[in-house]
Amino acid sequence: MAGGKVTVRQKMINMMYLVLTALLALNVSAEILKSFHMVEVSMDRAGMNIDKKNENTLKAIAQYHKDIPTDPTGTDVFNKSLQVKKIADEGVKYFTDLKNQLIEKAGGRKDGNPDEEVAQASNIELHANLMINQGKGKEVKAKIDELNKKLIEILPQDKRNVIKSDLITEIKKGSNQTWESEMFEHTPLAAVVALMSKTQNDIKNTEAQVLDELRSSLTANVMIIDQLTPQIIPVNGTNITLGNKYQAEIFLAASSSRSEASISVNGTQLKNESGIGKYEVTASREGENKFKAVITTVNSSGKKETYEKEGSFFALAPLAVISATKMNVVYIGLDNPISVSVPGFAANKVDVRCEGGSIKKVGSGGEYVLTVDGKNREVKISASVDGKTMGFATYRVRQIPKPTPMLGPIEQSGSVSMGQLKSANFVLTVLKDFAFEGVTFTPISWNLVYQPKNGPARVENGSGQNLTPGAKNALMNARPGDRFILMNIKAKGPAGAVPIPASLALEVRQ
Fold it and tell me: What is the number of structural domains in the chain?
């Protein structure tokens, strides 16, 4: 660089560039290089766990194919699983060979110990020359893209979008650098070796997702039926007043004595007698009482099958029956289900009115939906027949409880591991232990304060569930002693946008 027919001034500039390059290399601290080695070791261990998972999935697919060789779906899935394994194994070998090549060129591992750091961990020229000057980086980029494409395209078109692969070679918008330049220039060799291990795990993770999707398509719904029993199921209850019709469904029920079914009602397990669950309950609420039956059985291939069915019975009383399906309160912004009935009268003969809210009939029975806007603290519902009041009920009006903020799987303040932070990809606002099902809150905006143990704090402002690149980068680079605070959260619920008073304060433990 300092030779050739150049001016003395140019020679001096070239020499200064060499000195600067050397200083930059020396500036990479031993602690940072050690951290890269720890990441590499962690990646290798994680890769072993993924290998075990993929091996178990392959065994399950092969066992299914062995048990039911005549199932065309099973045969197709088995053949595709072998393709997936072959593609993934070849990809992992490619990056294993490349990693070993870089390590050998750098003088191997320290003291010849395969568990130690790379001998020239701070070297920034060796791999840059191979990847940039000799064009190997373009081949690596093409290999990653090819592996991603081959693995995902094994799945049917409508299943490919569920795969969340990290085998990507995109660069930030507006960047003037190529992908290979961003990955391999001005980067210590220890980081590049760790990157090779990460890429191997990305291949295995994509393989795992594709294998799981293939396995989920197996439909071993073979059930041996050897018992037939006549059944009579009342349609409109067993308590019928004069002038009304009794209706029932009569059919032949099939069951299997070879498969011990698990039967539950509203989450309570029933005693199983020859495949029949005996359900008894004391009527404690007037009107229609609904229940949910769940039957779980195992087919001939060992796969669990679940069947659900809703039932109901009527509890009669001398007055009108008005009851909230959930509890004795109603919530602002929700469709609060209300049941109203008057024994001895058809549902279309009962006039239902509401004070302090709005009530709407749903279906042909005595089911209604009550909505409130919060202007009144109570609502009163009355039922009448031919102008005569048969009964009424009063309910309190309440706001929907505020949800719990979560950073990925983390929902409690306190100390967390670096692994927990790195697995967090979303900001969530979850409504826990609420009587209504399906009520959701979606994050609108939030602030994530990042306070490094050594250094100034910074704030990432985000919107929606997905973390911003800056927030994700802060979590990925967290170190023991660093602190994170998720605060100023706003979320959209059934009643509109609401502030979440709770915050999440986390400290990375040693």
Answer: 4
